[in-house]
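Technical note accompanying the year-one report. For the benefit of new consortium partners, we illustrate the data format agreed upon in the data management plan: each record pairs a sequence with a C-alpha cell string. No post-processing was applied to the example shown here.
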Amino acid sequence: MSISNSKQLSDEFTTEILTLSHEGRGISKHQQKKIFIDGVLPQEVVKYKVKKKHRHYLEGDVAAIVTPSPDRVSPPCQHFDICGGCSLQHLNMEAQLKHKQTVFLEQLHHFGSVKPLNLLPPLTAETIGYRRKARLSVRFVIKKNKLMVGFREKQSRYLADLDECVVLHPHIGMRLQELKQLISSLTQYQHIAQVEVAVGDHEAALIFRHLQPLSENDEIKLIKFGETYQFDIYAQPNPPEPLRKLYPNNDCYRLHYSLPEENLKFAFHPLDFTQVHLSINRMMVELALKHLNLSDDDIVLDLFSGIGNFTLPIAKRVKTVVGVEGSNEMVNRAYENARLNQIDNAEFHADNLQSPHQNAPWLKHDFTKILLDPPRAGAKEVLPLLQSFMAKTIVYISCNPATLARDAGDLVHQYSYVLTHAGIINMFAHTAHTESIAVFEKK
C-alpha cells in the first residue's frame, strides 16, 4: 500500500544504481530502504524523485542520467519511456543476455540448489520485429476523446498511447495507427476490448474481441481492412463464444509455420499456443534434438506437447514418440499435423498434467528419453510419475526459470539426475522474460 508524502515526493535526489532487478528495474538505496527506478542501469549515477513509498521499499522516477553506463544504448522504440511491453531496450543486447544469464543461474541456485556442469551459450536471433503472437488491449479514453491500442504503461493499469511497436512483426507493428483508425470508425468502437495477433510464415490474423454485437457496417469495415492489408479477420464475442471468420470468406481457420531443417509444416488455429519468435523456435527445436541424442530404438515422451512442435521432429528420428497435452483440442491439432507431414509413429493423449491420472494409457510405455515444455507453473506434479521410466535423458524447456529451478532441484536431489547443461533462450528480446533449457542425465 503506497503512502503519500507530497513534500518528499517533490524532492530530487542523486544516487548510484547498484544492480538490476529480475524485471529490469534499477535498484539503489534511499534512506536505508531499497528503491526501484525504471530506465536506469547498474553503475549509473542518476537524479531521481521518489514516486511511491511502500512499507519495505520505494519506487522512483529518473529525472536525469548524470553518468551513463557504457552499456546504455538508444532504445529502438519511440515509446520505450512509457510502454510497459519492454523493459530493457536501453541496454545493449550483449548486456541484456548477460543479465538474463545471471538471473537464470541465481534462480537455479536459489530455488533448486543446483548448478549446471556446462553453461550453454545464449540462443539469440532477430531482436526487432520478431514477435508473432500478441494480445493488444483497446480502450477509448473519454477524458482524452481518443482511442488507444497497445500495451499497458510501465508499472500502471493505464494503456500506453502507441503509434507503432518495433518488437511486433512489422506486418502489424507498423500498422497500429491504421488499426486505431479502423476501430475508431466502428459503431461499436467503445466495445472492442482486445485485438489478438497471430502471424505465420505467410499469413497473419487479427481477432477482434467485442463485448457488444457488431453491426453489418462494422463487419464490412473489418473485411475491407483485411483485404487492404492482407489479414485474416476474425470476430469473437465475449469468450467463451466461438470465433467467426469474416475474411477471407472460407472455412479454413488455420495459419502455418515451418521448420525447414526438419522439412516440417505446422497448421495452427489463430488462438493456439505457438512460440512467439519463429527463428528462435527453429533454433530451440534443433538444440533440444541435439541434446536428446536420439536413435532409432528410442521411445520418447513429450509432455505438454501442444500442436506437436517438438513431437514431430522427434518422431523422424525414433521408434515411437508419445505426446501428452491438457486438452483434446490440442491432441486433435497434433494428429492433424502428424497427418499433414505423413508421420505415423507419433501418438497423442489428453491428460491434466497438473494432476495426472496414475493409470493413464500413456504411462504404459517404457520411455528412454523425455522432453518437457510446461507452462509457467512448471512440471512439479508430473515428475514423480517419471521416475519409474528411468529415462536416460530429460530435456526441459521452460518459460519460467524459477519453476525450472525448483523442478531441477527435485530431479537432481530426489530422482538422481545430473544437470549437465543449461542456458538461456532469447525468445523475448528487450523484455525481462527469459526462456531457458536444461539437460538432465541419469546417474
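Partners are asked to follow this layout when depositing records. Residues 93-112 form the longest helix (20 residues).
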